Structure formats: C-alpha cells, structure tokens
Amino acid sequence: MAVGKSITRTEGRDKVTGKAKYIDDYTCPDMWYGKTLRSEIAHGRIISINFSDSFDWSQVVVVDYKDIPVKNLVALIFDDQPLLAESVVKHVGEPIILIAAPSKELAERAIKNIEITYEAFPAALSIEESLSVKAKIFGDDNIFKHYTITRGSVADAFQSAEIVVEGSYFVGHQEQLYIETNGVIATTKKDGSIIIQGSMQCPYYIHRAIKEIFGLSDEQVVVIQTVTGGGFGGKEDFPSVVAGHAALLSRKCGHPVKIVYERGEDFAASTKRHPALIKHRTGLTRDGQLLATEVDITFDGGAYCTLSPVVLSRGVIHAIGPYKCPNVKINGSVVATNTPPNGAFRGFGVPQACFAGEMHMEKIAKTLGISSVELRRKNMLREGDITSTGQKLLYSVGTQEVLDTVIERSDYLSRVEEYKNPSDNKCRGIGLSFFYHGGGFTGSGEEKIKGKAAVELDTHGQVKILTASTEIGQGTKTIFRQIVAEELGISLDSVIFGDTDTSKVPDSGPTVASRTCMVVGKVIQMAAANLKNEIKKLVAQKVNCDISQVEIANGQISCPDVEKLSFTQTAIECVKEHGEIKTMAQYSSPPGIKWDEINYTGDAYPVFSYGADVVEVEVDMDTYEVKITKVITASDIGKAINPAMAEGQIEGGMVQALGYGLCEEVVWRDGKILNNRFTNYIIPTALDIPEMETILVEKPYPYGPYGAKGLGELPMDGGAPALVAAIANATGAFITEIPATPERILAALEAK
Amino acid sequence: MSVQLNINNKDYVVEVAPMKRLLDVLREDIGLTGTKEGCGEGECGACSVFIDGSVVNSCLVPVCQTNGSKITTVEGLSNNELSKLQQAFIDCNAAQCGICIPGMLIAAQALLDLNPNPSRGEIREAIAGNLCRCTGYMKIVDAIEIAATANKG
Amino acid sequence: MNTVYSVKELNEAYKILSQESVKVIAGGTDLMVFYSSGLSLPKKILDIWQLNELRNINEEGDYLKIGSLCTYTQLINDERVKHFAPCLVSASKTIGAVQIQNRGTLGGNIVNGSPAGDSLPVLAAFDVKLEIGSLNGIRQVPFNSFYTGYRQTVLAENELLLGILLPKQKDREKSEFYKVGTRAAQAISKVVIAFRAIVNAEKKIEFIAIGLGSVAPTVIRATKTETLLNGAEITFDLIEQARVQLSQEIVPIDDIRSTEHYRRVVTGNLIAKFLRVF
Predict the structure, then answer these.
(1) What's residue A175's pLDDT?
(2) Which domains does chain A show, CATH number per domain?
(3) Where are the beta strands (DSSP E) in A226-359?
(4) Nearest CA to CA, how far is A407 from chain B (Å)?
(5) Which residues of A touch B34 (CB under 8 A)?
(6) What percent of chain C has a predicted confidence (pLDDT) above 90?
(7) Which fold has domain C3-167?
(8) pLDDT of residue A308
(9) What is the predicted ipTM?
(10) Nearest-angstrom CA–CA distance, C188 and C183
C-alpha cells in the first residue's frame, strides 16, 4: 500500500543537501539582470520621466509601456491592470519603467538615475475612503464586484427572534512571506518565442499572460517551474507580472534576463490578503437556535481587480460558517483602493470570514449566557443539512467528529471555567473555533477548467506523471506518486514526476484552492487507471487471455497459466514494441452537482473539509503580551494520502493563522508600506509557537482519490478566532480587530 | 582584494571586493548556491553558515573579515552519505518548500555540536533565528531531536 | 568600490582614525544591513574585527572590564559576567538569535546608539564607564553622558571605543532586565528596562537605578523616579506613585512597532512588577 503511508518527500534529498535549485541559483554567461522602477505615490499622473545625463544609457536597456507589442495588461479576470503604468499610477509600487543591465549593480544605478515627477490626485486608502469615492479608481463607485446570497426571509425571521446580536469585525492585510522571493528568468529566442523559468504556482497562468502580452501562440511560450520556495497564494497570479517584465526586457536586450526581487521590493509590490470589514446581525431563540443571519462583507481589493471577485465569492459563501440557518442574507462587495492589489493567500477570503463569524459565535454565546460549545453543537451542519447557498450535504461531513475531538483532547469545558478567575498577573485562557472550507473551485469552476493530467510509461518501465500541478512544498510530487503507485499496484520507485514544463504537461488547472490532491489527484488516479487498463490489454494480447484475467499488484503482473511477470520488465517490453504509452484523464464533476451563478445558490463546492481548533494562551497582564501555550487541531480531510505531510500542512497553516491573529500587521502611511522587511513585519519564530497536537479525521469523500478532499487552506481558517477567543477568556477583553497585538489588548481592557 | 578561504575542507582563493557579502561570494564566486538569501538583514537565517565553528548569517559578514577562515555550508554537511541530521530531516518530513532548510540545518548542527542532548525547548531556542513559513517548526524540532538521539546511539 | 582598512593593532586603528574619515565595522550586524535597505555602504571602512585585545573580559577591583569586541555569545557564557552582571547576560540573550549573538558586539551596540539597543539600559543602570582611545591616549566617559541625541555620541572622529568598566553587582543587590518586544525571539524592543535596587529588610529602598530604552531618543535613566524611590519604604501607595511617575517621565513616541500610550502604561506596570517582589 502506498496511500496512507508517511513516505518521505520525493525531492527531500535535494532539499537537505542544498542541491535543489531555486530560480536565483540559476545563471548563464550572457544573462542580464532586470530591475523595476515603481511609483512613489498612491494616485496621480506621471508628468515627466527624466533620464539623468550623467549616466551612460547605452550600457543598459530601458523598457516602458510603449515597448509592449500587443496588450499592456496582466490577463486575469478584468482587463484593468496594466503590465506597466502609462500615464496614471494607482498605487505605490506600481511598475513604470524596467531596466536590464549586464550586472545587478549597473541596473540599480540606472534606476537611481531616473526621476519621475507626478501630479498627485486624491487617494482612497481605506474601505471607507473607497466607498465615499474619495478617489475614482474603478467605475463610478469603486466596486469591483458585488455578491448576494439570500435564503428564506431574513426580515420575517428577525421579527420572531427572541434575541438579536450584532457585531462588527475588522481584519487587516497579511503578507504571504514565502521565504523565497518572486523571481524568473526570461529568454527570448530568435524566432520570437519566449521561455520563462521561475518560482510559481501556476505555469499556465503565466503561459496565458505572456501569450496575451506578446500575441504569441501556445507553442511559442514555454513556462518551466523551478524549485519554488513557498507560495501560499502569493505566487498564484503575481508571477505573471514578473514574467511579463522579464520577457519584455529579454526581448529588447536579446539576452536572458533574470529578475529576482529583493525582500523589501517583493513585500511592497506583491499581493497580500484582503483586509475586510465584516458586520454580523444574528437572530436566535433564547436557547441559541439560529433563526436569521445577516452578514455584510466588504473586502479591500487594492488598486486593480486581480482575483478579488473570486476571493470575495469564497468569503461570502463561507460567511456564516458550518452552521445551519434557515434565513440568510449575505451581501459582499470588494472595493478599489489606492493600495497594491490584494490577491490570493491561503484561505482565499475564508480566514477573514471565519474570524468574524467565529468571534461572533463567541459573542452570541456570551450574550445568551450559554457555552460556546453548546451553541456550536446546536447549530452545526450535519449530513443531510443545507448550507447558506442551499447545498445539501450528502456525504463526508465530519463536523461532529472534529468538534468533539478537540473539546475532549483539550478538556475545554473545564478549562474555560477554570480560567475565568485569574489568580495573578499571568492570565490563562482557552479558545475554540469551528470551521469548514470548500475544496476546489467555487460553483462550476472545476467544470469550466476541466483539469487534465496524464501518466506515461517510459523506456525504463517507469511511470511518469505529467501534470501542471506544482510542488511548492506541500507535497504534490510525493502524494501524486503515492496515488499512481497505489492505483497501478506498483512500487513507488517505479513512479516518477515529470518536469513542470508547459511544453510537456497538460493544463491541470492552477495549484490553488485546496484542489491539487482532491481534484487533480483524482484526475491522476483516473489517468493511472487508464494506463493500467492499457497495460492489461497489451499483456492479455501477449499471453492470449482475457483482459479481466490480468492483475497487477505488488509490482507484478499475473495472468492465468503464466509465471508472474515483473511490472517493470513487462513495461519495458511493451514500450519497446508499442512506443511510449501515455494515458490522459480529465476532470468531471461528481453527479448531481448544480450551481446557479446568477442567484448564487446550489452546490458551491463538491465537498467541504471541516476543522476545529483549540488554542490556549497565557497573557502577561503587565505587558499584555500573549504566549500561546497549547494548540490542538482536528481536521476532517477525507483521507490523508500521506499523514506526515498532511500534519505538516496543518501545522504550517496553523502557524500562519496564529501569526495572522497575533502579530502580523502591515503598517501603512500615505499608501506606502512602512514595515516591508523581516525585522518589522513579525511572523512567528520557533519560540513563539508551542508544541501542537494535530489530529486527522477521515470521513471519505466518494469522488476524491481514495476519499481525500481539500487540505491546504483549512488550517489557515480557524487559528485566529480560536486565539482571540482564548485572549477573551483570559482577560475579558473582546478583541474585534486582528492582529490582537498587546496594544489592542490594552485598548480593549481600557474600554471595558 | 584576494581572500583565502577554506570552504567545506577545500581551499579557495578569490579576488573580490572587500565588502562583498560572504553570502554572495559563496553563491557567485564559489558557485555554492545551497546557502540562500531570504531577507538580507540577518533576520531569517536562510544564509546561515559556520565561520570557524560558529554559526553566523553570511549576509551580514563582509568577506574581508573571513580571510583565512574555515567555512562550512550546507554542501559541507555530507559527502556521499547524508549526515544523521540530514537523514532525520528527510525521515521526519521536516522540509516542505525547502528554502529555509540549508540555514536550518546549519543552526541545528551548531546546537548539536555544543549540546548533543538538547531539550525541545533548547532546540526551539537554537533555531529561533531561522524563519520557516511552511512547517510550523514541529517536524523540524522532531528531526533535530531524533538526530540527537541517533548521535547518542 | 569601498576602501577597507583591516587592522590588527590598536595603533594602526588610531592612525587611520586620525587621518581618514572612516566608518568602523566590528561584527557588522548593524552596518551590513545597509546593503538590503537600499543605502550604500560608507566609502571608507575601518575593520577592527581582528583587534583581539578588545575581546578580553577582566576583573579589575570593583569593576568588570569588558572589551568592546566581546560578542553577546561571549557575554552569555562568561562566568564573571553571569555572576557580577546577570542583567547583561539577560539582555544579550534577547538580542537577535544565536547567529547575531555570535557576531554582534557590545561595543557595536553602544556606538550604533539605537535607542532600542537592548544592552544599553543595563549599562545605564550600572553607571558604566566607557574607555575611549585615540592617538592622544585613553579617556573615560560616563555612559550616561555618552549620548548627546538620537544616535549622537561624544565619540570624536579619531576615537575608538575600547570597552566598558562595569561596577560589579553587590551581593545584596537585586537586578532585573525586562524586554518587551514584538515576539519571543529576534525582536526589536518596544520597551526595554533594567532595574537595580538594594532594599533592606524593612522594605526601605537604599538604592535604586532605572535604565530605559525605546522610550526616548536615547537610552535614559529615570532620575525623577529614582529620586522618588530612593530612601522610601515600598508600600502599595509608593508603587502606584512610581508607576505614574515613571510613565510620565519617559518620552515615548508612536512608531511602527508600538504606541506612545502602550509604552507609558507598560513601563509603569514594569516598575510596579519590579517593586512588588520585595
């Protein structure tokens, strides 16, 4: 059995010896270096660009928007974002001029010899300023997108509610902070075709972006992923910008051009998690039954649309959490501000919604004077229940299991009482969160993408996996090999992972949305099943038996009246006779899935994953510093293809979530980020995080590979509210804005 | 200036600008790209190397201060066979994206050199200068603990 | 291209300092950050890393003499520092992580003069003397008159900081170091405080010294609060008076790490915490 085992990472040896090559580790003799000159102001018109006479401009190549052959845009959802600013800039850090030079130092000096003067416009730097149209950024009202979910009649239900609880919650930006910054090398060939190598999640996003910018055909653009040092969504869409820039420079200077961002530049210019203002109004019976929920969500999209509508969509669908409520009204908008565009970040709208929703549940429990566990148990979704979009949950609903598990393991019910009466200046507290996360693309998204993947039997008798799903640390290479080995009944050594190169692999869809294992993994499994069938067919022909009599298991092929054959040997012979055998598969939705894009009703996701977190803290009442002392998580992920890697994902996601709740804050002044460095954007170190207990719950999803469903984003969702609930338990301070810094805790205590 | 270095038990003489960062000399002049840059300001530890037995951030050391020094990078932790520490990192699935791992291994080795039997708390302290965004540190701490146990056995 | 003078003898260093306008580099943990923050390094640099004579720690009567090139790791592991200046060990442990502690020097922390320099409140509370050398000889400067403003010191262009003379902590003396930072490790401080006190059996404060960082343009001594407390008996009321006095005496600001208000409140809380234990 290969599935369900904690086998070691496919590329593990390379990663512990320093042999793994990330983009900045590549070089070639005639390579030039690219640098970007960016807007210093949040909103305005470029009046002049002055190239200093004291610099010898013949040594470098300068690119501006006029060098763009076809379309000056970053192709994504709306065509509103230029690859290089023309006359107007809409955010600090917006790219204007590119330089390529034979050395980094020269490119930097060139940048310093360019001076841009602007006419400054008023800038809308917050959700409030956007809504009051302090500056016009998008359309007349600055609203990129609006969604409404309606179920039942909220107005009527509020009439009959015995209790109404209202709350308002705010979350700020969060930076992905992959430790490897964005980087690519672009090479333009004599025939005009372009090769992009780099750090990325989604090779086919870049493929499309480059095609549009240069007007090239599919075959003229090749995108190759190099070992990627973390993404977390930050390398979903943004690398298209870096690749577009490097390609423009390469085309003009005739050399391969490398752009690798410095940390400060990456931080200041790349996408972040959307800030959000979320208001809840909830009507209940006195004993805590949810009757009506009204949620108003506003996301700050930044200056350009990028993926914002999709992020909003997910936020809206997850707004009320894994609870059943017969009457629901959710209004969501994403608005434009003069700040760098926000984009994908693990969780994709859900961590924002989950923080607000779960803090609101805590508030309701407190208002009603009932246990927050009881409140959650009373209202939780169970198999057969219906979600806010009207989706009936037919299978794989691990709500009760995850909640019960963390409550028991943490002894939550006694601790929460014990901690209410602190004895000294160190207050202890315990907090809970309960959440879900839809796997794969929203609604008919997967149906539109129809992700493809293939497996190929090569001349060495090895099975090679061909997919555009990328390895970014989460374990794609390893778990896909496990799935294929399992399906074919062969050893892991016989399965290899092909290069992530658009000229060699089909478009499996992007590496996002917790879809790699659940969706593409299933496609891989299907492709492997097809291959198995092909091999069986050939063997049956050869030994002259019926295909149904051929079996493959444990690396051996057996059929009646013949001595067992080695899979590898047989495979080599098959390939020798018939050439390489490649089988493809394509995604198709589980039966019965229906989604109404207009009314936002129906099956929002093929399946949800469920999680519950308990966090314990100790708050120093002299300094208001929070020490996290215990973390317990339970995650229903259907099936752990590789339990150790699944745990690793959960632990890592949890730490990002705790950072989000505790200390990660982007500080702004006039649209400019003041803390764009590791020194002052604070992520947790090994000393900030306690030992964690990670529990895997497996409620199989019938249409996932071996029952697996989404995992990657789930652990990002519940950490912050559990932490902040623990702070409330410890101190009595109910924080409604994260991160819950000591400064905010002090303010909340003073406001009590 | 001309700088003599012994890197991973091999002697090198490089002609470089005196204030060039050791990190850049290793990566660009020597071609040892295992040592990574994460921040360039001594916060993330991805560029950790040993200089004369003590672990430092190579992004903060001008090469002129290392003339005649003995330097060990991630490439020097093993020859053909992986070190116990490296093997433990593989066995525990301690690496995810892997970019912090070279520095993490150096910091962990520095701990084990001084303290062959560290507690989990001491391990956390020893790697507090090495930021990892993927793992949540649990499996890294596990790996270092297991490597320490393996050393004893 | 930078010119770097790497010296092995103090006299060579003095000569260069008297002839050239140079920036001194020791462990480089502050200076080298210039690279990534987009600033260029100074044109001429004096590298004193090899001046091994500045790495000594010696007992001299009532004093501990600590060379300016001593790294934090050296301070953390030195038995004499542990015994006579435990606060300095505590402070050193909070600076960066092991990679920085192995390279960063006490002298660098002093001369760099950041108001958030973690060792500085300890030096202030201990009234250390700085030994400064040049071709003209050696002079001593009280630490508490070393800084003249934000990152401004009395160190002349031709001078080099050689080390500190730290009065040994007395047996009856209690000292504490508190750092309130942005996280548990690798943090820059929001408030950093060193307290020293001798309190007799009747709870009378015979002596107190309070050094503070990150709450003013330079490291400071809380002289008004010290005056309030010196000779007084520790009572609930006194603690409350000290809390108010100290939080008013400091001049913190809002910055990217924290707020003025938080710094005042926490500083007040920390003196209360220190006094509560007696």
Answers:
(1) 98
(2) 22-121+186-256 (3.90.1170.50), 276-443+596-751 (3.30.365.10), 451-586 (3.30.365.10)
(3) 257-260, 276-284, 290-302, 327-336
(4) 22
(5) 17-19
(6) 96
(7) 3.30.465
(8) 98
(9) 0.98
(10) 8
CATH 3.30.390.50 fits C174-275, yes or no: yes
Pairwise CB contact (< 8 Å): C184 & B126: no
What pLDDT is attached to residue C37? 62
Specify which residues A309 forms β-bridges with.
Answer: none
Q: Could you tell me which chain C residue has the CA closest to the CA of A675? A: C256
Q: Is C141 on the interface with B (CB under 8 A)?
A: no
Q: What is the mean pLDDT of residues A484-499?
A: 98
Positive or negative, the CA dihedral C215, C216, C218, C221 is negative
Q: Is the separation of the CB atoms in A735 and A632 below 8 Å?
A: no
Q: pLDDT tens across B85-102, in order?
A: 999 999 999 999 999 999
- What percentage of chain B exceeds 70 in pLDDT? 99
d(CA B52, CA B70): 5
Chain A residues with CB under 8 Å of C95 CB are none
Strand partners, A602: A595
pLDDT tens per residue, range C99-134: 999 999 999 999 999 999 999 999 999 999 999 999
Q: Nearest-CA residue of chain B relative to A232?
A: B134
A1 — pLDDT class (breaks 50, 70, 90): confident
Helices (H), A200-321: 203-214, 239-253, 263-269, 308-317
pLDDT at C40 over 90: no
Taking the CA of residue B97 and the nearest CA in chain C, the distance in Å comes to 22
Cα(A581)–Cα(A565) distance, rounded to whole angstroms? 18
- Between positions 102 and 121 of C, the ones with CB within 8 A of B are 102-103
- Within 8 A of B77 by CB-CB distance, chain A residues are 17
Partner-chain contact C256 A687, CB within 8 Å: no
pLDDT by residue (tens digit) across C49-63?
Answer: 999 999 999 999 999
Question: What would the two tokens of residue A150 be?
Answer: 């309606």
Interface test with C, best of B4, B39, B56, B67 (most C CBs within 10 A): B56
- Tokens in use for C242? 């000290």
How far is A724 from chain C, CA to nearest CA, in Å?
A: 17
**Which whole number is the average pLDDT over C174-189?**
95
On the question of pLDDT at B151 being above 90, the answer is no
- Residue pLDDT, tens place only, A524-533: 999 999 999 9
A685: nearest CB among B32, B40, B131: B131
Calpha distance A320→A401 (Å, rounded): 20
- The predicted pLDDT at position C38 comes to 62
Report pLDDT digits (tens) over C14-30. 999 999 999 999 999 99
- Give all chains having 3 or more CB-to-CB distances under 8 Å with chain B: A, C
Interface residue B14 vs chain C (CB under 8 A): no
Helices (H), A503-634: 521-543, 567-578
Chain A residues with CB inside 8 Å of C116's CB? none
Contact A685 B134 (CB under 8 A): no
* CATH 3.30.465.10 domain extents, chain C: 3-167
Give ranges for CATH 3.30.390.50 in chain C. Answer: 174-275
pLDDT class for B46, splitting at 50, 70, 90? very high
CA distances to A212, A353, A363, A411, A732 from A427, in Å: 58, 28, 20, 18, 10
Exposed e or buried b for every residue in C67-102, given b needs 16+ CB within 10 A?
A: bbbbbbbbbbebeebeebbbbbbbbbbbbbbbbbbb
Would the CB atoms of B95 and A475 count as touching at under 8 Å?
no
On chain A, the residues whose CB falls within 8 A of the CB of C183 are 663, 682, 684-685, 687-688
* Residue C190 in tokens: 């929001």
Q: How far apart are CA C109 and CA A734, in angstroms?
A: 39
Selection from A635, A394, A632, A420 nearest residue A514 by Cα: A635
